[in-house]
Amino acid sequence: MRVNEVLTRVDEDELFDIRCKSWNFCIQGTKWEITHSDTFMDNHFGDMLVTHIEVNDLSRGHAIMLLVD
To answer: Residue 64: exposed, middle, or buried by beta-carbon count in 10 A (0-12, 13-18, 19+)?
Structure first.
């Protein structure tokens, strides 16, 4: 499943922590914040494959963590 497919299934205010080991990249925020981020859109992170999904604790609350590649 790709990142965009996961994001279409949740509310706009859901917290996410998206991590990509091969690019040494991490982006955190709500679905709305992430999908409207220039970094997310310019680098096509929505097209990356999700390899692992879990719940992570952030300072803002519980977040869905996606490991991507």
So the answer is: middle
From CA 12, how far away is CA 22, in angstroms rounded? 27
Q: Give the CA distances from residue 21 to residues 14, 24, 49, 50, 69, in Å, rounded to whole numbers and listed in that order.
A: 23, 5, 12, 12, 7
Angstrom distance (rounded) from CA 43 to CA 54 = 23
R_g over Cα of the chain:
11
Indicate if the pLDDT at residue 58 is higher than 90: no
Model confidence pLDDT, tens digit, residues 17-53: 999 988 888 999 999 999 999 989 998 999 999 999 9
